[in-house]
Amino acid sequence: MARTALEEMWGGYHLHSTVDGLLPLPSGVPGAARFIECSVGSMKLQDARLIEEGGPIYSIWCHSVGLVVIKDAANTTLASVAGGTPGSVTNCYLVDNSTQAGTWKLVTSTASPSSPEIIATDEFTFELAAGVNIGVNIRTLCDQEGYAGNNPVRVNVFVGPQGSATVGAVGGFGVINSGSPVQQGGPAMDTGTFPAGSIIILTVLDNGYISGRGGHGGIGQPITGGTSGSPTYGSIVQANNGSDGLYVRTNTVLYNYGRVQGGGGGGSGGNANGAVSGPGGGGGAGHRVSYYGVQGGYPSSSGFSGGGRGEYGYLNAAGLGGGVGNGSPAGTGGTGGDPGQAGGDSSGTSGGFGQPGYAIRVDSGFSLAKVVAGNIDGLEGVL
What we know:
Blueprint: H1 5-11, E1 14-16, E2 21-22, E3 34-38, E4 42-44, E5 54-62, E6 67-71, E7 77-82, E8 88-96, E9 103-110, E10 122-128, E11 133-134, E12 136-137, H2 138-144, E13 153-159, E14 168-171, E15 189-190, E16 199-204, E17 208-211, E18 223-227, E19 230-233, E20 246-248, E21 252-256, E22 259-261, E23 360-362, E24 368-372, E25 375-377, E26 380-382
Parallel strand pairs: 1-3, 2-4, 3-5, 4-6, 10-13, 11-14, 12-15, 13-16, 14-17, 15-20, 16-21, 17-22, 20-23, 21-24, 22-25, 23-26
Antiparallel strand pairs: 5-8, 6-7, 8-9, 18-19
């Protein structure tokens, strides 16, 4: 009978208290890190060429009062870890196994050997490769597969099509421009919450995106009345903010070979000029498509006209503001923001643009280990 990851991890328990002792090879069971208890001394990781990339490969519990030194197979020091009570656990991830030393990513946190932080007992794998994936919540995906919510989990998530030139994207929610206060949609991907000790292994493939939605463009200044020679004006409706890309509420390891990005802010609507209403702003870049801002309204009587609407914002292309290229007397609306960037001002206005969404937000008390950071467009923040 095949052993589970939990059985293999504890079955591979190893007490280490030597100087530069070579650690045992990992078991090769998916999800099973080799557990090492270290009280004193230093240790060397195995020849990386003998190990598959990924991880964690080792979970090293250090509980001595001094420092424990962790080295690669070429005898280069990777970390000096303090122990104490209850100790610290260092999870070792192998990023590149093309050389003896390899490239390792070490993530250390405070824990004890009985902590479920070391091992997850329920495993799930999801591939988000095709179709429209909007507002993905990983906890919801697990629940739909029968997860009871009692045990910690190890969840493998792949974003983007494997071995294909087709782009695969997870996109954020957006809210249609509705005036003040400016509303912001939900993130493209939310890890959701799980019992303590859970871990999510998130891989964004070459053609994969986790992208917040771009903010909708601002609405141009309307003409509310008067005559064409003496019009009265209303107010510009401010553009929307972009939404966030990735929201982390469970300890997560990221392999980003694609792109993680916040949605660009919408471009500002423009001022009216004489009898021409203000042009709309362009939509911010992101996924899904963001809406343009419409031109400001104007009376139907003779002599009035509109300044033009903005353009839609797409995954990697922000929309231009209204009036661009048509010589509108009212000027131009602001261009939407690129991924992770604020929208632009229109000609003649200031401050009506939308702010960008965060590329990554992490809840306080949780960690995001970027084994492969890749392309990240926008701010990263801790809540």
